[in-house]
Amino acid sequence: FSVAQYCFEEFLSLRQYQVLKNTELPKVLEQEVSKEVYDKSQEYGRAKAKFGFVKGLWGQIQNVAFIHYDVLPKLWSWTGDLLLRFAPARFTGEISHSIVFVLSFILIQQALSLPANIYHTFVLEERFGFNKQTPKLFITDMIKSNLLTFVLVPPVLAGFLAIVKKTGNQFVTYLWMFTAVIQMFMITVYPIVILPLFNKLSPLEEGKLKTDTEALAKKLNFPLHELFVIDGSKRSAHSNAYFFGLPWKKHIVIYDTLIEKSKEEEVVAVLAHELGHWSLGHTTRLFGISQASDTLVQVFSQCY
Questions:
Q1: What is the separation of C-alpha 106 from the centre of its chain, rounded to a whole number of angstroms?
Q2: How many percent of the chain have pLDDT more than 70?
Q3: Rounded to an integer, what distance in angstroms lies between the CA atom of residue 228 and that of residue 205?
Q4: What is the overall mean pLDDT for the chain?
Q5: Residue-level pLDDT at 184
Q6: What pLDDT does residue 228 have?
Q7: Bridge partners of 227?
Q8: Which residue among 8, 162, 198, 209 is the one 20 to 30 A from 216 at the CA level?
Q9: What is the DSSP annotation of 24-80?
Q10: Is the pLDDT reported for residue 88 higher than 80?
Q11: pLDDT at position 180, please?
């Protein structure tokens, strides 16, 4: 199944690669983009696609190797031996073992993906002038990410396994409730606690952009609370914008690179695209689909 999925996804990528080889500027873009910019964009797309082929093949080799050589069962046994040998008796149970196992697996995956991440950042993105990240910042981000993983994964996984142990055949119902609460918690906490560890958010200055954005939000009845600018330029020259927050209190974040490279009306157009997702309920629908799929799992588990 893993190989079949890989082959299907690579087939789609190859089809898309043929589109990226087009050299003729589409008519719809003739008045918007120069031939030079279009050619550069196509070249960047092809470079990313080639990198994706290599990365995908490396990932598939890992998947097959992990299955063929029973890597996960062996890792489970190894982490259990470590706990028995070095940990106090109260930390050698199933939950502690599972936490050490999962964290070990995450570190192994990170080590295996590190060469590709380094190449993507310091070779591919650098070649096209997008990378602004220094090796020091790259390492710092990796350390921070690992620390967050070691802080957040243990309590979540412990809660997950405790529910399974205590609720018997009804565990799927309680896990569904647990994961829904965790999702809502992370949506609330991420921009307040986690995001500031990596980026700085500053209030958008008074001016035409702020006025036009507030007018757009009012027109769509978007519950805008604050407008922020994020220092995305410390890592990349790419630009973007997004919103976050609870349904009744939203915040819009604009990358400083988007403001620097675009006119006010162009930035507002990007924001209109993002707010369109909200207006059409895409985020809510995806969340609902996710919960519905969990419910189906619950029904099948109880039936069989």
A1: 15
A2: 96
A3: 9
A4: 91
A5: 83
A6: 95
A7: 252
A8: 198
A9: SPPGGGTTTS-HHHHHHHHHHHHHHHHHHHHHHHHHHHHHHHHHHTTHHHHHHHHHH
A10: yes
A11: 83
Distance CA 283, CA 245 (A): 12
Q: How many CB atoms lie under 10 A from the CB of residue 8?
A: 10
> Locate tokens 């062996």: which residue?
74
Of 270, 291, 256, the closest CA to residue 132 belongs to: 256
Single pTM value for the model: 0.85
* Range of lowest pLDDT (30-34, 66-70, 196-200, 295-299): 295-299
Question: 245 pLDDT exceeds 60?
Answer: yes
Q: Which of 43, 235, 34 is nearest to 127 (CA)?
A: 43
Which residues, including other chains, have CB under 8 Å from residue 205's CB and lie 6 or more apart? none
All residues at 6 or more sequence positions from 63 whose CB lies less than 8 Å from its CB, including other chains: 2, 6
Give residue 149's region: left, alpha or beta (phi > 0; psi -120 to 50): alpha
User: What count of residues does the chain have?
Assistant: 304
Q: Say which DSSP state 204 is in.
A: P
Q: Is residue 154 over pLDDT 80?
A: yes
CB burial of 77-99 (b: ≥16 within 10 Å; e: otherwise) equals: eebbeebeeeeeeeebeebbbbb
What is the bridge-based pairing of β-strands 201-203 and 241-246? unpaired
pLDDT for 295 equals: 65
Q: Is 243 helix (H, G, I), strand (E, B) or coil?
A: strand
The DSSP secondary structure of 76-98, one letter per residue, reads HHHHHHHHHHHS-GGG-SHHHHH
Strand 241-246 vs strand 249-255: parallel, antiparallel, or unpaired?
antiparallel
Give the C-alpha separation, 241 to 228, whole Å. 10
- Mean pLDDT within 247-262: 92
Q: Rounded CA gap, 290 and 179, in Å?
A: 11
Q: H-helix or E-strand containing 11?
A: helix 2-20
Residues 169/174/180/182 CA torsion (nearest 10 deg)? -110
